[in-house]
Each structure stands twice: as structure tokens, then as C-alpha cells.
Amino acid sequence: MFEDGNRRIKFTETGKEIFMPDKFMDQIALVAAIVLPLFNIPLIVKILRRKSSQDLSLCWVLGVWTCIVLMAPSGMRSEDIVWRVFNYVNIVLFTFVMIVTVKYRKGMKTHAG
């Protein structure tokens, strides 16, 4: 980090160095923090259209959701706007994933022998 608040980034392919303002990198990260959880929407739509979540691991969905909930207090108290925004958007959308996954679960799979 330099006195003017910029960071030097070296591109290994070209060997060139550029200065990247922290504010610009934070803006990119903020956009990504909002967009990343939006990728849950196609999964939610798929479950709702098929009225089945049988192809998803219930253990995975509940495990991810539990970790998100356990990390949420850290995100909500953080002064880092990127972490805070990501947590709010992610907890809302992944909670919806968890709800529709559980709602549209149809018993245990049986394998014919």
C-alpha cells in the first residue's frame, strides 16, 4: 500500500506493474458480493418448476446454510461493507434455497436391487 491509498499490482504475463485504487477494487468486490448470491436464483427456480429437490444433497444444503447462519453475526457487525452486504444478500437467498429444498424433498431414495 502506498501513501496515496493505491496498491501496486504486477502482471506476471507481461511483467508490467500498475497502480490500482483501493476504492475501485472495493467497488468491484461490492458488485461481486451482490451478484454471487444471485446465482442461487436459478437453483430456486429449478426446484420450484420441478417441485422436487431430490437431486440435491440435503446434507450439503443444510451444512452450507448452517455455516452461513453461524457466520452472519460477524458479517452484520463488520465495518467492511463488502462482507456485510454479501452476508445479508447470501443469508436471504440461501435461506430460500434451504426452505424450498426441504419443502420439495420427497422421501428417501430407494435403490432397487
Total domain count: 1
Helix content: 55-70%
Spatial strand order of the main sheet: 1-2
> How far is the N terminus from the C terminus?
63 Å
User: Mind telling me which CATH architecture this is?
Assistant: Up-down Bundle
**SS summary, helix count:** 4
In the CATH scheme, what's the topology name? Monooxygenase
Quick synopsis:
The chain has 113 residues and is mainly α. It has helices at residues 22-38, 40-50, 58-77, 81-103, and strands at 6-10, 17-21. The chain has a single domain, classed as Monooxygenase (Up-down Bundle).
Summarize the structure in words.
The chain is mostly helical. The chain has one domain (6-103): Monooxygenase (Up-down Bundle). The protein contains four helices and two strands; from the N terminus they run ββαααα. The chain has helices spanning 22-38, 40-50, 58-77, 81-103; strands at 6-10, 17-21. The chain has a two-stranded antiparallel ribbon. α1 (22-38) packs parallel to α4 (81-103), α2 (40-50) packs parallel to α4 and α3 (58-77) runs antiparallel to α4. It is elongated and about 55 Å long. The chain starts with 5 loop residues before the first strand and ends in a 10-residue tail after the last helix. The model has no long low-confidence stretch (mean pLDDT 85).
